[in-house]
Amino acid sequence: MNRREFLGTSAALAAAGCTKGEAPPPPGDLLTTNHAAGHRLRDGGLPAASETRRVKVAIVGAGLSGLAAAWRLRRAGFSDFELLELESAPGGNARWGENAVSKYPWGSHYIPLPTRESRSLRLLLAELGVLQGDPEAEVARYDERALVQAPQERLYRDGTWTDRVAPLAGRSPSELAEWERFQRRMSEFQRLRGKDGRRAFAIPVEYSSRDPALLALDKITMEGWLRAEGFNSDTVHWVANYACRDDFGCEHRDASAWAGIHYFACRVGAAEHADREAVLTWPEGNGFVVRELMERYKFALTPGAMVHRMEESAKGVALEVFLTRESRSIRIEAERVVWAAPFGFAARALVNAPSALAASLRGYDYAPWITANLTLSEPPYPHVGAPLSWDNVLYDGPSLGYVVATHQGLSARPGPTVLTWYLPLAGEPPAVARKRLLETPRLRWAAMAFAELSSPHPEMRSITQRVDVFANGHAMVRPVPGRIWGEERRTIVGHRGRVHFAHADASGLSLIEEATDRGVMAAESVLAAFGVRSSTMRWNS
């Protein structure tokens, strides 16, 4: 969504939402990441440390990569570590909320069926009771309560809802033929192996082929590749663009072709009693994993902790940490650091990084997102076509559509529900979109959601009781050309020191498979450094 679309849609709707005689907009809160801490750092004047702590390992960031690292350390019997989290609660992109109606996600809301290469994620899900069979099985067995229930997805286009997301209804024979050719091509990429014998597009990306002919796809955009291959139909480009906005927060004209093809070709996981398009989901989305890990392990966590300076030496790592809740600073002396926060923050904190590493960390940019949770007195009416599904996509809208938090519930009687509406601010430079995100009030975002959702659901305003909005300025790394297989990422991944980089940024893709694998990989490097012997939890290809 570019600035013109934003102004045209939101201004009209904001005005409509405040027309004379209408009820005021539903109440709600505007949530953000901890911008105040960032502004405090920018403006300077942080107090000197009033306390020094010593710990074997400091884990910076309590998103899924940081929690995966903590889980791996504890599984090896290692507990001398502390999690430092800038926000008020753990979770990162898997953060979640809850009200009287339901739990609901603020970020990632599902897990595609994990591949065998995603071994660390499979082992984690097995411990949580989600994967109930052999974690090594080609076709795994999952708790059926976690497998998404039917109907899974639908698309609103030309005034009606249709099953599935591909916009095929009413297309010409030539366009349908091109769609079939695109699907065949993606299936070929699923089976393809490079000259080194590895799968061309594996997940986690670390297990993918290094065949130069395949890596060259990371140098061009997904849109450019489609055009070069003779894919010009609206259907193919809409699906590819939707995929890139969904997983990467950017349009297919900005995403690398390797990343775009990876979206369609990497996920070959399978489950008993489910098709390959099935996913694992919960009312709170991937917050389920966060909640379960914190409840089971009760990790030592310091929320509101901003690491603003980090100095690596031969003896250890010194961290200067501002505690936002207490408005004071502490010094933490650690033997090792697992950096599980976005790399853009590491670029500012690591003061004595080698020049190539520092430049590589500065090279990352992030997609801004808006998420709105609408609490409804009852589900939206069926209207025309396919019934209410878990994932509901609008063909012509700027958003990705909405998911239904109560979809997995066992009650046969409809009642109050929560819809989670996702809006990536793609289509313009991230810095421009981020500035707009921070300057826009909640009422305008709520108005935009109503504008879009009132087309398929004219009753939406009357059944909405509350609209809570989360503005995330740095939601996920953007896999622009060169991000995944370029020199910057190789420099960071190849760093050998006392700081171990564990964030999904190290893969160039903000996905749970990558976060889990990177966290486990960093933890196992730490264990090896301390001489702790433990069998790997990662895929052994």
Your description of this structure?
The protein is of the alpha/beta class and 541 residues long. 33% of the residues lie in helices and 22% in strands. It has 17 helices and 21 strands. It has helices at residues 3-17, 35-43, 64-75, 119-127, 173-191, 212-215, 222-228, 234-248, 257-265, 287-297, 343-349, 355-362, 430-439, 442-453, 460-463, 487-493, 512-529; strands spanning 30-32, 49-60, 81-85, 96-98, 103-105, 111-112, 139-140, 153-157, 160-163, 270-271, 279-280, 301-303, 305-312, 317-323, 328-339, 366-376, 391-394, 401-404, 417-424, 464-477, 499-501. The strands form 5 sheets. The protein has an 8-stranded mixed sheet. Strands 2, 3, 12, 13, 14, 15 and 21 form a 7-stranded mixed sheet that branches. Helix 1 (3-17) crosses helix 14 and helix 3 (64-75) packs parallel to helix 10 (287-297). Mean pLDDT is 94; it is low at 10-20.
